[in-house]
Amino acid sequence: MLIKKLDYPKVPVNLIDAELKKIKHILDDPESASEHSWGYVTELDVEASIKAFKLDKDSILVKWLDDNIGEHYWSIHIIWGGNTLPPHIDPGRTYGFNYVIEPGGTNVVTKSYEPREKNIKELGLGVPISYDDITCVQEELCSKNKWYSLRVDQVHSVEGLEGMRIILNYSSPEDEQELKTIWNARQDI
Ligand SMILES: [Fe+2]
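^ thats the input. predicted complex w/ fe (ii) ion below
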């Protein structure tokens, strides 16, 4: 299974709301966020875009997550601007662990694919991948306030978006060192 539902606890709404309040200016105008120097930004210039924002270690939400889920490099991902985040492979990550804060619509599905003929490396990292080169092997409607794990080193997409999707995210511990390097490098942008 490339997408798995996890039996982790629900995150208190007041902690989520407090965190979203801090990034309200980003949620109101996500394009402007590329001007900011804080955070790891991945943009696929086809249809929807995705950006990730590192959460402040001192925030009450991070404290709750560290205590109740585990100590991780916590971030919030937003996806906006189109109805599909195209098939892609995340650079530098193997697993993504996601908590759905806002699904972005009632029929938003996360899909996982296997390559048809080319191998994963030939398909490219962090770039949109053609549907001609892949076959969908799993499709899940990931519900609000639930946790999921996703193999992000395999091809995946998000489809059926009607509005902004907001996800709380962490990566597997073996990915975190790599992410720290990427994030730190990007702080000078
Ligand atoms: Fe991804």
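Confidence is low (pLDDT under 50) at residues 35-46.
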